[in-house]
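Collaborator request log, item 7. Partner lab (contact: R.S.) asked for a structural prediction of Myo-inositol-1-phosphate synthase to inform their binding assays.
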Amino acid sequence: MSADPSPSQPRVGVWLIGARGSVATTVVAGCAAMTAGLHPPTGMVTETDLFHGAGLPALSSLVFGGHDTVDCPLPKRAEALAAGGVLPHSLPSAVAAELAAADREIRPGGPAPGDTRDSTGLIETFTADLRDFLHRHRLARAVVVNVASTEPAPTGSELPASSLYAAAALRAGCPYVNFTPSTGLHHPALQDLAVSRGLPFAGRDGKTGQTLLRSVLGPMFTQRALSVRAWSGTNLLGGGDGAALSDPAAAAAKNAGKERVLADTLDTVPEGDVHIDDVPALGDWKTAWDHIAFDGFLGTRMILQTTWQGCDSALAAPLVLDLARLLARAHEAGLSGPLGELGFYFKDPLGDGPAALGEQYAQLARFAERLRAPAPSEPRGLPGEGR
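Returned to partner:
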């Protein structure tokens, strides 16, 4: 469905925090593959009839850049993902030019070991990087998407790394998406800035696997009047996420969204916990088990068990592209503030919207109608100018 951009169609930036990670690499490689007609847009909701005529930017109009604290080039990262079965074997060589172009737009992140810059200095640097990206490529706008590894919840007043990047996005005039459970714009110190900038933002924590299934099964039990007694889960995963989530504080931040889905769809929190185990040998692949104990008619006790095996990068990448396009179009349409209508994509969505996937999809369909409304006239100058 994504049309080729006309000569007059503006280009749109996608600035990835964690730009050399598995998800970001899959996003860049996947977008290039679809633009070249090498693969269909499987998993992209914005490429379905739901968003036909909604004015979303074409995939071929997207320009990628980002921040990261690691220095492995995207082409090398893509080769590693192909060796692990995450990307098709021949894809890294087929889109090598696009990967290299995106890699040239990645700037050093922070705070890195030995970094002498304080929070103010880091925000200023990140903001300057974004403004430079916008101006050099003559972009109509750029959307900042956080796909970095999960960080522990902050315990003091100091802004965590995710919030530094979020603050820079706001100062540069860029819509923001938090695809992770990290703090990002949720920090109290950023609330006034988020309101004053008049930008759309969405989050948090992309719903790609176990929680996606929970957002379907929870409403099923409620609607069939079946009483859930206990719901326990286990995740086995490797890669960067597995290493990051081996930190109990980071795992707790991740599990909060999973628990919220059950609380919101069952109107109670059943017994049971979610456990996350780092298994480096699994690489970018994940296995998630759920064990659900429930009561049926006359108190008959029953069990439902589910197994979800998948690759998080391949599940997340189409959603990241969806959200970048949706936020870009929302910005063009003059929308601002938290976009609760995008709860379909998140474990812990902004606002007080529904938690059941079916209801979230209906809300997303209404959002598509909003985007079909005529866009306001473009302001003069590039994003971030005069701000």
